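Can anyone check this?
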Amino acid sequence: MAFSTKPYFFTLVSMIIAMMETRSLTRLLLEAKTRELIHLCMERIRAARFGAPVPLTMLEEEAMRKVCDLLLTHLDRHITIADAADRFGISEKKLSKAFKARNGIDLSDYILKERMELARYWLRQGKSVKETARLTGYPSRQNFSAMFTKYFNENPRDVLKPKGRRQQRRL
């Protein structure tokens, strides 16, 4: 069996070797890191043998958290999968695959979902369709309206909170 050359595996093995050489850390920590390495190897073998998704390493998990944070804090900008991959130094394919494994949804679908939910929120708060389009990263009102209608099956104008109109109460 060929061992993975991923940085996380290399880091774990290096830590174990350093602990064995310096003997400065407790035996308990050495055992814990050894068990962690064995567990990761077993998960990868099980995934390869049974076609299950490969679990993410701690480094990949951290990268996915940072990607989600980046996307959620910049929904007003047009950020592509390529932009996110470049920012974190990984390939688009690996980012997309790892993101779907972690979240159960494609990255592009996730971006769309978050933008549409934010758009619905802004419209319900009384923002205009044009302003909502800008706040959710769409270059034009028309482009935004088409995507909103396709996603929610309703026109964004229908979601707008009425401004200054008194709603008549029915008796």
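Reply from J.R.: I decoded it. The chain is about 70% helix and 0% strand.
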